[in-house]
Amino acid sequence: MNHLYLERHDTENNLHRFYQMFVTPGLFDDWSLIKEWGRVGSPGTVRKEWFDTQEEAIVAGNKLYTAKCKKGYQVISV
């Protein structure tokens, strides 16, 4: 998983949300999981988590992906 974009839509409650994740290398032999979320069409909130290895970042991203899918998010692009 290098990039993943998810959306969740609930028209009855006017809920249109997105969530995207990136795994990228850092400058000091570390890796980051960059997460962005918000309302579709609006700028989102961005947060970074740092990891020692790429595998750790991917595992964290996969756990987050699983949690988002349980909440009703669907993959739009990979």
From TrEMBL:
WGR domain: residues covered: 1-78
Domain of life: Bacteria
Signal peptide boundaries: none
Entry-linked Pfam families: WGR
Coiled-coil blocks: none
Listed name of the protein: WGR domain-containing protein
Organism: Methylomonas albis
